[in-house]
Structure formats: C-alpha cells, structure tokens
Amino acid sequence: MAKYSVSIIESKKNKKRYLDLTSKSVPARMKEINKGGTDDKFLNANKPFKAIYTETYKKKEEAEERIEFMRNEARVTIDLSKE
User: Fold this and answer.
1) Local structure of 33: helix, strand or coil
2) Is 11:47 a contact under the CB 8 Å cutoff?
3) DSSP reduced 3-state for 4
4) What's the CA gap between 13 and 48, in Å, rounded?
5) How far apart are CA 27 and CA 40, in angstroms?
6) What pLDDT, in 10s, does the model give residues 7-51?
7) Which residue from 81, 20, 76, 22 is spatially nearest to 50, judged by alpha carbons?
8) Strand positions, DSSP E, 2-79
9) How many separate helices (H) and strands (E) can be counted in the chain?
C-alpha cells in the first residue's frame, strides 16, 4: 500500500519554508529537490532544503486534505529549539 508524506521543508540557504506532498520516501524526495530534479521555481531557487517536520498518511486524499488545512486554516508553529 502506498503511503504519502506531508513535510515542512526548510531552505538551508535562507530558512524559507515549503509544504511538500510526496509518495516517495522523504530522504529520496529531499535528494530529488536538492539535485534540482523538479520544475518548481521556488524549490530550485532556494535549495538546498531539509525536512523539519513530516506526517505520513495511507491515502493520498488524507494527505491532500492535511496540506490544504496547513496552507489555508492552520498557523502551524513548530518548536524546533528542542532539536
């Protein structure tokens, strides 16, 4: 069964953040993004990135709903000071 990951990724260059949804493993997705293997202008302009938060879902629809919630309704705050 496929799994889908919703990740908050952060640019190592300038700390800008991006919400990413993928069916690939998070390490494989980070490698793809950081090698420039995407057509997304924001990702290419702000690479390299690191994943700072990830949630996993069994269904693509659930992951898409979570992305929409995080983009439109939630003010997601993550305390990274503990890392």
Assistant:
1) helix
2) yes
3) strand
4) 7
5) 18
6) 999 999 999 999 999 999 999 999 999 999 999 999 999 999 999
7) 20
8) 4-11, 17-22, 49-57
9) 3, 3
Distance CA 20, CA 40 (A): 11
pLDDT at 78: 54
* Range 22-29, long-range pairs (CB < 8 A, 24+ positions): 23/60, 26/51, 26/54, 29/5
Write down the residue that tokens 């439109």 correspond to. 72
Q: How far is 43 from 57, CA to CA, in rounded Å?
A: 23
Specify the pLDDT at position 29.
96
> Which architecture does CATH list for 4-82?
3-Layer(aba) Sandwich (3.40)
DSSP label of 59: S
Q: Which residues contact 62 (CB under 8 A, 6 or more apart)?
A: 4
pTM, entire model? 0.83
